[in-house]
Design a protein that fits this description.
It contains 17 helices and 37 strands. With about 700 residues, the chain is α+β, with helices and mostly antiparallel strands. The longest helix has 17 residues.
Length: about 700
């Protein structure tokens, strides 16, 4: 076994790999860019090496700097995690040439399976069924369009390199095919450095099933069952589980055998995943899509139902050891479900978010596992992937695992950064998800029902209570008789303190502007600037109730006292408020004190506070990659004007109405902040401002 391993990645996957290295007694080496100097993976590794500035191209994607870090620290092997260079054949070969073990498959297997076109041809020759689509590599835009016309819409455009849904475009209208091809090429080039595309037939209401395989250098290949990855948004997985409720034992065995043959066909070694598209109405008609030649984001669900540590298996195989078990030894026990927590704002069209992690609470232990790269006080920027952590729950059956995961997400607090945790919890309670009636289009079809409607009354109540508590704490202390030192009368503090330690629950009644009255029970939690709220007695259980519909306690926290800002978290959604004394709003206490609480962030998706209807502002911090217009150009409503990229995602900025571009403040390559003015489109006479 190796004595020192360099982890060529960041975030939660780096922390997860370091955990197994520590358990095996192997020295870990972390690498970091300037943006990650104080990141969790840097703190947890045995040693860490700076490899460059924030830009990934000059740090995490630099083969030379990674190899130099390995040389300087005496590493014998490199674990690439996933993303960045994990599926880069050049990097794998460079490691081998430098005498380093690459903890992954051989460069030839990465090259073959990384080219989706060659991969399909290879596994097809091995007898594995494939999705109908274009053939040949390096197709021009015209050739792609011709192949799409021959297949017939709807079709799916896919980058030949890479994965993770980046660069994929579902095209239902042939009229927009040219524009979608151009957008797919840009995103593929940005994400993978290769803009080669292929086109495939789109299978309506498909299910995405993948098979985990393990192979050693001695010719042994096994599969570890399947994972259901059908819950997706914009072709990005959001919830994964194992096993799938769709497959019976016969179909599971057949798909597993096909995955093993696919791995053998390319000389695979290590942990990998063979992905299939499966018609929901006919699971026996499955098609090979691609093979991911790395550890998958969702690997923990397989670990939980098999009892295997996949990173440990990768290390042993890379060190030359044979697999210590055969196919007949693999047992699938229980059920596991994983949710990906990302820095994005569902209320603003899932735009990437950012900020500093002001307070952090992540569930872990027992049947719940959290793989995370977060620590309190660390900023989350826009330079890297938006995934922050993964919350995984295990149960004896699917219903138990779903219930545990919903509760764990409600207990996940990442104050200061808006996340999708609340959205994920609502998705897990969706009737079709609970019943197992899944397909890859479910999230998009039912998206409006999965988004929050306004701000719950309990959140306003929590903000008002904290505002009052903050004012009470900042009041002048009582002067002791005879000029003694200042002190605060403990019996005058409205903090719920009582003998015995645990603060008492206090019933509070609120009259909310524009909402129904709210009655809650409140008590301090942790410090004096944090509290919990729960429904009043008889108003519902504060627990999950077994079906995900119950209300969990609200966790609220003062995070910026000087600016009178209150941050409140409820069920994975963060709300920010300002507060000031006012004769209007919520009544607090019996003395008639009144507090006015209003939304502190009035910015709506696609617009900016304080800007007119003509003004286009950046909906997220990022980089302008495309500018399609110039000052003086006349545009029509909905016309694409600019493209802003952040966290490996593109966002198109469109004209709000017909008019003339009278101001353009950015150029390709410009770095922009959220709500920064990008352009102004002055409406033509008679046009309604959008």
């Amino acid at each position: 076994m190796f004595s020192t391993v360099l982890v060529a990645n960041r975030g939660e996957i780096a922390v997860r790999v370091i955990r197994t290295l520590r358990e095996l007694g192997i020295r870990s080496v972390a690498v970091f860019s300037d943006a990650d100097a104080d990141a969790r993976h840097v703190r947890e590794a045995d040693t860490a090496v700076r490899i460059g500035p924030e830009a990934a191209a000059e740090s995490y994607l630099s083969v030379e700097r990674l190899l130099d870090a390995a040389r300087r620290t005496g590493a014998e092997a490199v674990h690439p995690g996933y993303g960045f260079l994990a599926e880069n054949a050049v990097f794998a070969q460079a490691c081998a040439d430098a005498g380093l073990a690459f903890i992954g498959p051989p460069a030839a297997a990465i090259s073959l399976m990384g080219d989706k076109i060659r991969a399909k041809e290879t596994v097809k020759a091995a007898g594995v069924p494939v999705v109908p689509g274009s053939s040949g590599s390096g197709l021009t835009d015209a050739e792609l369009a011709a192949a799409a016309a021959q297949i017939g819409t709807p079709v799916l455009l896919k980058p030949s390199a890479g994965g993770g849904g980046k660069g994929m475009r579902l095209v239902r209208d042939a009229a927009v095919l040219a524009e979608e091809i151009a957008a797919a090429r840009r995103e593929a080039k940005s994400s993978f450095g290769d803009d080669t595309l292929l086109v495939e037939r789109w299978v309506d209401r498909p299910r995405h099933i993948e098979i985990q395989v393990l192979a050693d250098a001695h010719g042994n290949v096994v599969h570890l069952g399947e994972r259901e990855c059908s819950l997706q948004r914009r072709h990005q997985k959001v919830i994964e589980e194992a096993p799938s409720v769709l497959l019976d034992e016969k179909t599971r065995a057949a798909m597993g055998a096909a995955a093993v043959e696919a791995a053998r066909s390319c000389g695979y070694v290590g942990a990998g995943t063979v992905e299939f598209i499966v018609p929901g109405g006919d699971p026996s008609s499955y098609y090979f899509m691609e093979m991911n030649t790395r550890l998958q984001v969702e690997h923990p669900v397989t670990e939980l139902i098999t009892g295997l540590d996949l990173v440990e298996q990768q290390l042993r195989v890379a060190a030359g050891a044979p697999l210590g078990f055969g196919q007949d030894d693999v047992r699938l026990t229980g059920h596991a479900v994983e949710a990906r927590v990302c820095a994005e704002d569902p209320a603003r069209g899932f735009l990437p978010s950012g900020g500093t992690v002001l307070a952090l609470s992540e569930p872990s232990g027992g049947a719940v596992r959290t793989d995370s790269g977060l620590t309190a006080g660390v900023p989350v920027g826009s330079a890297y992937d938006p995934m922050l952590s993964k919350v995984i729950a295990y149960g004896p059956d699917r219903a138990s695992a779903l219930r545990l995961l919903r509760g764990a997400l409600a207990d996940t607090v990442i104050l200061g950064v808006q996340t999708n945790a609340g959205f994920l919890r609502r998705l897990l309670a969706h009737p079709d998800v609970v019943s197992g009636n899944l397909d890859t289009g479910l999230v998009e079809r039912d998206l409006p029902a999965l988004l929050p409607e306004g701000v719950p009354g309990e959140v306003y109540a929590a903000a008002a209570l904290l505002a009052a508590a903050s004012a009470a704490e900042s009041a002048a202390p009582v002067r002791a008789p005879g000029g003694a030192a200042a002190w605060t009368d403990p019996f005058g503090a409205a903090d719920g303190w009582r003998l015995g330690g645990t603060p008492a629950w206090t019933v509070r009644h609120f009259r909310l502007p524009g909402q129904d009255p709210v009655t809650v029970r409140a008590r301090p939690h942790g410090s004096g600037t944090e509290l919990l709220l729960a429904p009043a007695e008889g108003a519902g259980d504060a627990g999950d109730g077994g079906d995900g519909a119950g209300r969990h306690p609200v966790r609220a926290r003062i995070v910026d006292r000087s600016g009178d800002v209150v941050t409140v978290e409820l069920d994975g959604v963060t709300h920010r408020f300002s507060h000031a004394a006012s004769p209007e709003g919520v009544w607090l206490g019996r003395d008639g004190d009144s507090w006015h609480v209003q939304d502190h962030d009035p910015v709506a998706a696609g617009g900016s506070a304080g800007t007119g209807a003509d003004t286009l502002a950046a909906p997220m911090p990022g980089t302008v990659t495309v500018v399609k217009v110039a000052v003086g150009d006349r545009v029509v409503a909905g016309q694409s004007l600019l493209v802003v990229e952040a966290m490996k995602m593109e966002h198109v900025i469109s004209a709000p109405h017909a008019g003339t571009v009278t101001e353009l403040d950015v150029t390709p390559g410009s770095t922009v902040a959220m709500d920064q003015v990008l352009a102004v489109v002055t409406a033509e006479a008679g046009e309604e401002a959008a």
